[in-house]
Design goal:
alpha+beta
């Protein structure tokens, strides 16, 4: 059975492309073309609430990453509309990564509805030395996710391992390429509200001795926070 995948794309409209035009293209042309492919199970768009850039994130749940190498998806770049061709010359950044789902898959909160993710999202990109990868995974499985599940408002945590990255597109594409390969591990945490992050339970889950050990030994530990804009589901 194929491993489920995630297409994960940071976006920034930039000074040459109005936000309204970027969002109209994304919502009404870009996403519908992909959701016409059955292996694209769902798509969600997010906007940053942490003041960082890139401002936008799109997450696409895939039956497997293999769908990206097959028609019709593989032909989309060759059949772009004139509108999209013009927009791609002006957009500041589309930074694309693909991931495989990492086992084990943690059960979500009771009553979780996959068609209604978020509406608040935390993403964590982490890289550790190979010798510490087993410990990182054990920390997630044995301590971190069980503690997060006790935080009021936690909905779901999923983990992924990087499969491929890029090439980044847009006027800032070369800057992203120069940074090299993104961190190997990605965690995606869904929450009812940002207020969950102010609770004592959340502070405990993110400050245990084991967590601080992993944080201190990591080569990369990059967190972002987003709010949900829109969701598309296969019918």
């Amino acid at each position: 059975m194929s491993t489920r995948g995630l297409l994960f794309v940071f976006g920034e409209s930039g000074p040459q492309l109005p936000d309204a035009e970027f969002n109209d293209w994304y919502d009404n042309e870009h996403v519908p073309l992909r959701m016409a492919i059955p292996a694209f199970r769902s798509t969600a768009r997010w906007a940053a609430i942490d003041g960082k850039r890139p401002h936008y994130l799109a997450t696409y749940d895939l039956a497997s990453c293999g769908v990206l190498d097959e028609a019709p998806y593989s032909t989309l770049a060759d059949t772009r509309s004139p509108r999209e061709t013009d927009l791609m010359r002006r957009v500041q950044l589309l930074d694309r990564r693909t991931y495989d789902v990492l086992e084990p898959v943690f059960p979500p909160a009771p009553g979780y509805d996959a068609s209604s993710p978020g509406p608040a999202l935390v993403t964590m990109e982490i890289e550790v030395e190979p010798a510490l990868e087993d410990e990182l995974n054990r920390w997630y499985e044995e301590e971190h996710v069980p503690l997060l599940a006790k935080v009021p408002g936690w909905r779901r945590t999923r983990r992924f391992v990087l499969k491929d990255a890029g090439p980044a597109k847009g006027t800032d594409g070369e800057k992203v390429k120069a940074k090299g390969r993104p961190p190997k591990y990605l965690a995606v945490h869904e929450w009812d509200s940002p207020t969950s992050w102010e609770t004592e339970e959340f502070r405990h889950a993110t400050s245990t001795p084991w967590r601080m050990k992993m944080f201190g030994s990591a080569k990369a530990w990059d967190g972002r926070r987003f709010e949900l804009l829109k969701v598309w589901e296969q019918e």
